[in-house]
Amino acid sequence: MKINKQFKMQSFKKIYTRVTQLTKATCTLEATGVGYEEMALVDGKSAQVIKINGRNVTLQVFEGTEGIKTDAEVMFLGKAPSLRLSDELGGRFFNAYGEPIDGKYKPQGKELEIGGPSVNPVRRKQPFDLIETGIAGIDLNNTLLAGQKIPFFADADQPYNSVIAIVALRANADRIILGGIGLSNDDYLYFKNLFTNTDMPERIIGFINTTEDPAVERLLIPDMTLTAAEYFAVEKNEKVLVLLTDMTLYCDALSIVSNRMDQIPSKDSMPGSLYSDLAKIYEKSVQLPSGGSITMISVTTISEGDITHSIPDNTGYITEGQLFLRRDTEIGKVIIDPFRSLSRLKQLVIGKQTREDHPQVMNAAIRLYADAAKAKTKLENGFDLSDYDKRALKFAKEYARHLLAIDVNINISRMLDISWNLFKQNFQPDELGIRKKFIDEYWTKATGVIEEDKNSEEGNMSFVNTSFKQRNKLDVKWQ
Length: 479
Prior knowledge:
alpha+beta
């Protein structure tokens, strides 16, 4: 059959000039010899092959199809999105196509297509290295390991970007790679200024899509970020920490493309492929036998704490826990919610790489905090409180202020000491449910007095400007 098209070769690129179908985000034409995920230019706009049905090829146009006509020139570039990999990426910021946005030169190196398969399970090792963040709500109750994948669940008005930035700066990582998905300009400048003002800015790489960029370009950010992460983890044996924010905006971009292709939506207007789309990203986290690792911390914003939405719901199935941010009205601060947060790998390190009393203290504190929640319910329903109830409520308030709040930055040993002081301040030893050998050793050392940490702008700035090596030793607070 004769196909009505104009075809020519220019520098080994295929060019067509007849578009058979247009939607708001895609265009379809007849073409041969092209591959899935291959990049193209449609009337000068970047596009990518997302569907091939015989000779009918559908391309996703990242900037949208407005202004494109049926006789538009479509040039296939002969390759999928790629990134040049070398140490020259260090200290740089790039867009969704891997092009510099910091005004500097384009890095050289080995060119590799993004979005490759995850590491074969036989080449993986069980995570074993503790990542100490200095945030008590994480280190004490939801300890993280290198090679783990874990999201922050947060309402859109909570300071999640500040939290993951501080986690990154305090974490024991050789490389930090930020995947900014739909960042506001303020957030982008926050990350850029914070990361470039450290003494080792070359350890940080950013791939950024802002609200001013096409929404569909967000789909490229995770693959760009993880391709760079795999290079440094596999080739350089580095401990790489990947930050992805906000994965809800990534899923929204998936939904945009799916809906404009007239695909039947699944729950919450999300595509039916949502689970596999997310798994392809999160399964890139890995601990390699050589010592290199990719640890993934993402942000999933949720509406009014609704974790039943398909985005957090699918995320929870894939990841190894979650860190849930919520505002505690009693103390007026955002905390790591101990009831809804979970790190499924923490048992591999607590009490082994941390102090031996860590598991017992953690369990006792959570139980007492739960007792306080029950007491609060009794109070709200007009029931009388027992003496134990009143002490539990006092404990919970101080526990949230000194250990669960996200502005608490101390080392794990000090977290445990503060916990013992709170125990001694409010309870008797037999009310804790802690083993006698730990009571005998740590109860006598506890003073029952909690010292306030200074929380000043000067202290926060000194933290930001302190070196990576020193920062893990600091006991400071930030806002």
